[in-house]
Amino acid sequence: MATTLEIIRGIAQAAANAYDGSHDPTLVSDERPRKVGLRREEGHMINDRRVMDGFKVRFSGPILTITYQSEIRLKDVSQNGFEDEIGRMIGKVANFLKKEYKKITGDKLTLTKVGEPSLLVQKISNMRTDVRGICDYKIGGLTGTDVVGEPEDVEREAIRNFLALSSKKRPSNDSRG
Questions:
Q1: In terms of C-beta density within 10 A (0-12 exposed, 13-18 middle, 19 or more buried), how is residue 63 classed?
Q2: What is the tens place of the pLDDT at every residue in 84-121?
Q3: Domain segments of the chain: what residues?
Q4: Strands 111-123 and 53-60
Q5: 55 with 40: CB under 8 angstroms?
Q6: Closest among 116, 153, 120 to 135, alpha carbons compared
Q7: Low-confidence winner among 13-27, 77-91, 129-143 (lowest mean pLDDT)
Q8: How many CA atoms lie within 13 A of 64 on its CB side?
Q9: Distance, first Cα to last Cα, the chain
Q10: Counting Cβ atoms within 10 Å, is residue 77 exposed (0-12), middle (13-18) or buried (19+)?
Q11: Which of 2, 92, 161, 171 measures 20 to 30 Å from 37, CA to CA?
Q12: What strand order describes the sheet that includes 111-123?
C-alpha cells in the first residue's frame, strides 16, 4: 500500500505529464504521446487558431480539486449544454490522471466525485470569455489525513470561565436611566 506522500507525488507527476505539447509525439522525450482530451490538442499547433485551455490540481487533505480553465467565444456560452460540456472536460482530466497515475506508479487511483462542478464565466471582450470549472474528488487510499477547513466544535474552558466572571451590575458613576 502506498503512503500518502507517494500518492500525492504520483498524482502531481501525472498532472505534470499533461504539459502543452505532450500530445505530439515529436515534442515528447519518451515517444509516448499523452492525450488528455483538451481542446488545445486538436488541429495543428502553429497553423490553426490557438485554443487556450488547461487544468491544474490542488490538494486539501484527502480532497483533490481539479480546475479547468479555457477561453471560449461568447456565443458558445449561451448554448444549451454548456455547463455539461465543462463537466465532461473535468471528467476527461480525471480519467487522464487515473490512467497516467497507473502508468507512473503501477497502482490504481480511485477518484470519487464530491458534489457538482462549479463554473465561473467572466467576459473578456465582446467576443471572448474566460471559463473556470472547479470540481472536488475524494482520493481513495489516503489514510491519516484530515479534511482542511472543517469547523472545530471545541469550546474552551478558559472562555467559559471568563464569560462566567461578567456581572450585570452597573458602576456607581453610571447615571443612565
A1: middle
A2: 988 988 888 898 889 889 988 888 988 999 989 999 99
A3: 4-146
A4: unpaired
A5: no
A6: 116
A7: 13-27
A8: 30
A9: 72
A10: middle
A11: 2
A12: 53-60, 63-73, 128-139, 111-123
Cell 477518484, residue located: 111
Q: How far is CA 36 from CA 14, 49, 131, 136, 166, in A?
A: 11, 19, 18, 18, 63
Angle of helix 4-16 relative to helix 82-105, nearest 10 degrees, comes to 120
Distances 31 to 5, 22, 36 between C-alpha atoms, Å: 28, 10, 16
Pull the grid cell for residue 164: 462566567
pLDDT at 150 over 70: no
Inform me whether the pLDDT recorded for 134 exceeds 90: yes
Closest Cα to residue 52, out of 129, 135, 133?
129
> Mean per-residue pLDDT for 67-96?
87
**Cell numbers standing for residue 141:** 487510499
Q: Which amino acid is at 63?
A: I
Q: Are 136 and 153 in contact (CB under 8 A)?
A: no
Distance CA 26, CA 62 (A): 37
